[in-house]
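As noted in the main text, all predictions were made from sequence alone. Below is one such record, for Serine protease.
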Amino acid sequence: MPSGSLRQLHGCPSWYNFNSRLKHPVSNFSLPSGLLLSPMLFHSDPQSSPTAAATNYGTGFYIDIPNAKYQGADVDVILTAGHNLISQNKEKSKNLRVFSGDDDEKGWPVPEDNVKICPEYADKPNETGSAFDWAVIFKPKDMSKKKTWKGFQFNLAFAANPPRSGGEGSLQKFMAARIWVSGYSIRNTPSNRKGALRYSAEKGWPTGLKRLSYKVRTEPGMSGSPVWAVCDDELTVVGIHTTGEDRANAPNVSQGVRLDLDILERLFNWTGTAVRSKKLKVATAHPFSAEGLYLSFSSSSKDPARVRLGADGLDTVLDTLPFGRRLVPDGSNIVSKNPATFVFRLHRPSDTPNTPAAGEESQDQWVLLDTVRNRVLLSPTLQKHCAFTFQRKGKNGPFGICPAESKDQQLTLGSKYIRREDSCYGPVESSEVSFTPWYGTPTSLFCFE
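Prediction:
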């Protein structure tokens, strides 16, 4: 092992039974809880320079961003604390290496271009308890190794909805049950000379819109650890640990940055995983191929979606964002078998803030797939019934849309009551937005325009 470095340690503590939290218990469960960052701050390797500063350590973790690319290459996405990668006087880490496994002796030397520090934090890295204390590293995928674990999952509902709301998908309720922090301690004790993976769990709560607090004792080296819990069989991360306990004023309470919509939107932009400002069009709309058939919402957000003939005057423009991925057990590890899920949001101008000001409500409108009442609506709250999977014919061909909570149905836009000659009276629309049976192959196909 290189001097002054730590490795990822696997396994879970004997005092916690993960199987009791899973609907489908697995045997010999091993938790890949993160990976170690071993950054050299400000200076070159101290082994080659006796005047260099000591090595600094921190923790990071994989997050499963589907089909992530960076600079044209497939990448794994690593989140960590911003202060692991930049000093208070704005000097960035040098000789940064990532160690991501028990057998990873040399680590991966991180190119400077593969690191992004939250711009607001890079501008003010000396701000204690900053809500912007986060950074990301893009690691090229090693296609020669079969990776069974894609990383921690995220739940876009926890990120997008007000954290203190009391409804379904409430982050406050999720954290009140039990929240985990798992990272690498570097305390030099006889039982922990080289750093060990520490697990701590207790109740937590949102602190404002962008910070989290939790009754968890943390140690040096754990900055950048995932703040997570098990949600619907998924290891779901909701924050990044950044601040240890204040023993004088708030003993046993640590804090972190909330993984909110602002952070995820930036990750989606950097990795090219969001599709923005597109109309949803029926791929084959015979006999209306010339005009096209489109999904349309009226100016009243309470009205169900309709089918519209032609794009002239159509202002229903959508953003497509990843929602998360459901995990299923397989043998001795948790692996992701199900496809990634996505959601539609009414497109908003690029200058609209992702995080509303204190006391303000988000103006986002999410497309809700109501399969029970056979309709499509807009919802100010992001719910699990907004999520769907793409079912494609070919890699870049047209696609079907299947609600994630009802896998035997597909979205369909009909045209039985569309009359081209009615266009003299104004826009031609019908209420033929419905869900039809899904038999494993998409028969109702769409494309973006």
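Helices lie at 119-123, 156-160, 171-177, 261-271. The radius of gyration is 24 Å. These features were considered when defining construct boundaries for the mutagenesis experiments described in Section 2.9.
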